């Protein structure tokens, strides 16, 4: 809580071992100097409120402590420190002594780190923008617009990192499952039945307590148990993608439970459910469900992930550019002024060179007039300095919400380390100024063969090996 009228959050990172600035309004994290350097705010008091205490964290957000101190005239500094310490002690009075000791040790370490950072030099390579959320004139009236007064309000926001490795793992993990169904000569209806059984198992698991999620195969009907036991080895990779594992006891009871951090499972489950619905839809669309079905778009392998994304504009805080790559229907990239044209650039992880062979777009949850209708896909082999057209689409129409459209790239052998989608028009630009898209998935060519084809034998081998190990156990 900032006394100059702004509220944000801090999250304790166990990986970094410290508190981390996190501003959901502007979609920026771990940039504590955002307000002083970017927004040009004259800070005074910044107070952090937690269940185990109340803290003065102002020093974390400034490199001009002497100036800030001159504006802190509500109460003497010792009186403020005494008051906050008293409130913190009261918050901790019912905690165990060892917990209090650990918190006090954390507080000391935090205070030392803040004092060190207070006099550290800024990283000149980091550009901190003026305020992005809120109306332009409102931000200017609050002196939060920053120093770049000439920038466009709909211009590109910050470069964002896609945290979507779990999405790619889930997409890949359906390969062994579908391959095993084909190997068993399952009909389309039988394949859908198996996938629905697995979905229901995970729905039950999702309903269980967050930190102790567990579901037993024994709770299923005898018929469903038989199906699951037959297919379970092929689901191993998918469970791993969800941070889940199988456990069995001497009585033959098999449970599915958490394998690691429950947060990972919570993030991955919505992606799984939405991807599973799409797999079921694609199975039903197959003319013949057989070995020849093991290709795009039923199998979606080699999805790009962990790249950097830059967009012409975005709607804060929920319509940011990376929302197009998070694998769920619950979010979307929204460009407030994109109806007459907008763009999004995807830079490949670690600047690697890959060939784009296919991509998939999904319509968002509402407002069909904002759907893309015409676009161009381009690739760049120099990080975005020059572009080459890879695909063009016109007169495309999404007839349903959450509808997926897949497109294959006809030009072959073009390696790129960045891709740009230029959306030229929406479905009804007279009815809206906005553009939106539910998801964008980009797929690379698998090494040494036609796209995705190498999965067939590999998936068969993985499934057979898992079945053999289960039989031996």
From TrEMBL:
Residues annotated as domain Rad4/PNGase transglutaminase-like fold: 6-105
Organism encoding this protein: Ilex paraguariensis (yerba mate)
Superkingdom of source: Eukaryota
Full protein name: Rad4/PNGase transglutaminase-like fold domain-containing protein
């Amino acid at each position: 809580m900032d006394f100059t009228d702004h509220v944000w959050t801090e999250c304790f990172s166990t990986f970094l071992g410290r508190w981390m600035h996190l501003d959901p309004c502007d979609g920026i994290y771990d940039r504590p100097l955002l307000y002083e350097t970017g927004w040009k705010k004259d800070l005074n008091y910044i107070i952090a409120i937690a269940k185990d205490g109340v803290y003065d964290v102002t020093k974390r957000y400034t490199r001009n402590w002497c100036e800030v101190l001159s504006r802190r005239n509500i109460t003497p500094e010792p009186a403020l420190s005494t008051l906050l310490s008293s409130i913190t002690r009261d918050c901790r009075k019912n905690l165990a002594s060892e917990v209090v000791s650990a918190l006090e040790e954390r507080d000391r370490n935090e205070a030392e780190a803040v004092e060190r950072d207070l006099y550290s030099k800024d990283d000149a390579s980091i550009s901190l923008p003026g305020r992005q959320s809120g109306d332009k004139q409102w931000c200017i009236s609050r002196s939060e617009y920053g120093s770049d007064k000439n920038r466009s309000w709909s211009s590109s926001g910050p470069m964002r990192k896609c945290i979507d490795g779990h999405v790619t793992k889930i997409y890949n993990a359906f390969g062994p499952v579908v391959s095993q169904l084909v190997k068993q000569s399952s009909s389309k209806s039988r394949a859908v039945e198996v996938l629905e059984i697995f979905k229901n198992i995970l729905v039950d698991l999702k309903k269980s307590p967050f930190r102790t999620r567990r579901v037993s195969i024994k709770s299923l009907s005898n018929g469903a148990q038989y199906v699951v036991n037959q297919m379970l080895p092929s689901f191993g990779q998918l469970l791993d993608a969800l941070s889940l594992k199988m456990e069995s006891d001497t009585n033959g009871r098999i449970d599915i439970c958490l394998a690691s951090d429950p947060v990972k499972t919570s993030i991955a489950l919505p992606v799984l459910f939405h991807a599973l619905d799409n797999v079921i839809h694609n199975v039903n669309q197959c003319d013949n469900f057989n070995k020849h079905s093991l290709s795009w778009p039923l199998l979606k392998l080699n999805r790009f992930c962990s790249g950097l994304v830059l967009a012409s504009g975005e709607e804060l805080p929920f319509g940011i550019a990376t929302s197009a790559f998070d694998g769920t229907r619950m979010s979307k990239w929204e460009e407030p002024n994109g109806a007459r044209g907008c763009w999004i650039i995807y830079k490949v992880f670690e600047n690697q060179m890959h060939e784009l062979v296919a991509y998939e777009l999904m319509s968002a949850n509402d407002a069909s007039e904002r759907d893309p209708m015409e676009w161009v896909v381009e690739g760049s082999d120099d990080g975005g300095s020059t572009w080459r057209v890879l695909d063009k689409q016109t007169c495309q129409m999404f007839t349903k919400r959450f509808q997926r459209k897949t497109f294959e790239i006809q030009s072959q052998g073009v390696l790129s380390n960045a891709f740009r989608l230029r959306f030229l028009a929406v479905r009804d630009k007279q009815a809206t100024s906005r553009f939106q898209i539910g998801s964008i998935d980009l797929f690379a060519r698998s090494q040494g063969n036609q796209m995705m084809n190498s999965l067939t034998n590999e998936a068969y081998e993985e499934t057979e090996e898992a079945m053999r190990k289960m039989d031996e156990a």
